[in-house]
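User: Run a structure prediction on this.
Assistant: Running it now.
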Amino acid sequence: MQNLSSQNLITLILFHIIRLLPNYLTLALIKKRAFTLQVNYSKIYFTLDFFKNYTNTQLSYLSDICAVDYPKRISRFEVVYNIISVPYNSTFRIKSCIHELISLNSISLLFVSANWFEREVWDLFGIYFFEHYRLRRILTDYGFFGYPLRKDFPVSGFLEVRYNEETQKVTYEPFQVNCSGRFLNSR
């Protein structure tokens, strides 16, 4: 067997993955030993299951699921799964672009850590994960309106939460901005 450099071996692995999943991948990149693959949203579960169980990848550790909001795109959200292959010392970044009305299949049965990450993405972005067994808010109140990490969410929010000394309860009031001390457009 010929002696291959580390970069050539990584490139060969990527070409091999592209040959195995030609109808699933829409983009494939390598940057600093990190593979970036873009997958159709309807095939995300199968793709991650394949990468977890395939001998040449062995993606056994899901380190994070995150989302990015691009409000001017048709597919507004980009969901990114960061998965590590411990035996091969490599990172896979698997992306999927979705519209705000489309739900993704939950991968919490494949990776136990996905349970928390999917609930976090649901709570902060409003991306629904189909067949998630306990999808609920975890970082915001149950009565919270909206999704705070969306670009169209107001910076100040909708409600002001404060403790009322007289009633000794937490009260929710509509948020009002007082601009009386500002002089706008004065030159």
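The first strand starts at residue 25 and ends at 31.
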